[in-house]
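User: hey, got a sec? need Transmembrane exosortase (Exosortase_EpsH) folded
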Amino acid sequence: MQNETIEETTESTAAIAPISAAAGPLRVLVDWLALLTCLVLLPMLGLFASDLWQRTDFRFFPIAILAFLFFALRKFRLVPVEHRWRSYWSLGILVASSLAGLVSALAVSPWLAGLAVTGMCIGWGLARLGDSRWHEIVGWTLPLWVLLALPVSDAADVSQLLESSTASSASVVLDALSIPQLAIGNLLQLRSTSLPASLVCRGLGSIYLLLLCTTLLSMLLRRSLWIGGLTVLSLPLWAWFSAVAHLVLAAYLLESDGPNLLFGARGLAVQAGFLVVTVLLIWAFQITLKNLFAPFQAYSAGQHGLHSFYSRVVSWPTQEESERPGKGKETAPTADTISNSRDRRIELIGISTLLVLAVATGILANYEVFGRSAGKRMEPLQITTEAMQSHFSLESLPANLQGMQRLEFNNFERKSTHFSRNFGAKWIYVVDQQRAEIVVELPMRGFYPLESDSLTVVSRFAEPRQSFEATIEGFGTVLLDDVIVLDDLTGRSYVGYATLTLNEFPPFRTAVTTGSRSLQSLVDCVKLQPTIIAVRLLVEGTDRTSEEERATYRQILLEVCETLRPSLEQLNPR
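Assistant: Yep! Here you go:
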């Protein structure tokens, strides 16, 4: 009788699914499947890393990856998981992450690949790290979520909104200091020079870098979910305050013949100083919040009903509760462990699905990256001041362009070290006593609505934007967009622009740039955004523009693109 009992116990133990075994690393099937999925996503992750590195504002991403590894490995311990629903959640997250990886290969979306790997880390941790609670595992991946918050195109970059608000706010402060200036968009015009707000809102002043610093600060100090959430929600205010203070101080010193705090090594050091001060202020803000919520935290220490819910929202997870004996441990009776045939079948189905998705993802990802050379979409343009002067000149465009007479030309480089549109070339024309500008903007990442650059405090859109597509030999698909702007000073103006690429991958509009809510435009928001060039045409002081006149202006844009094709191709030789 005793031998039969021992045999039944052995069979019951053997029936426990591999996902909850207490074996070492890479000794359980789910370990190999998670590792396989991450490996087959390496080509897409390589595109993700390359994209971030080429965009200088986001070169801090290795810090986020190292921080994730630090927090995850610090308490890494393989412990068997015997909670049925935790295993179910783990399998569900693993399958969903594998599905996201497959979609990332189909849509050529490095962002989705990053999301898939993040989910894979969470799902694997739930399955194999039984000694760690689920909120701890999710918390370790917070630095990876910061990377997913980085914009995939210039149009989705909230730094541009920060720049315009910084310039206008700095203008108000300088008015109070009796310093003459004028804020135009994200530019602060002083008597002696002009200061782009991007000089203080990008680089070490980036709101995304501040988000990472705040996240790491909250993780190191083990802040509660409530305090951490409020801190993140207040980040735009802290970033705005730091940028305005930096810009006002720099403008005041420039007008007082003082040192320049915006350029060179000194500018970098000052920006780093403002970042450190801002992080210290955020630290003090978190301490204040902790003291404010301390009475509520003590009152809601019960474990029943509303008190339990409020305690988890306000004070959980905290170190004290994590170390409290008998609290929060995910134990379950033997009847709830994964030891019956039905649960076994569910796990086998989930693991088989993981295997199929991983293999399909690997085939598609390698085909897109190596077979179709998806990385060419984001090839950086080798642009320098010398290249602009060599390839663009007054004679690059004809003196007579469909009735418009050429007047002057100039190359320009924006005074910013961290801005997408660093270079440009401008031709001034006149037509029927109206001033017209043709501007080549380069480079940009993804489609960008250039009509927003034409708006000022005294202008608005008079007619909605119209969008078209055309085909030019050598460029392929070209996107054409135009809009009518009504300005209180110059009257009605026509703004049109052509968006093109220098490789075989066509540009595309997204829901962020068009306001469309179609499924395709939403999917395009997370796709690999190509490096593009935009050619803009501005005709000021027009009368009510007919459809025929707008069609003529669009034809001029296409002619300009064809004429400038040799010069543009020399900037990016294939």
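Quick note: Residues 264-299 form the longest helix (36 residues). Let me know if you need anything else on Transmembrane exosortase (Exosortase_EpsH).
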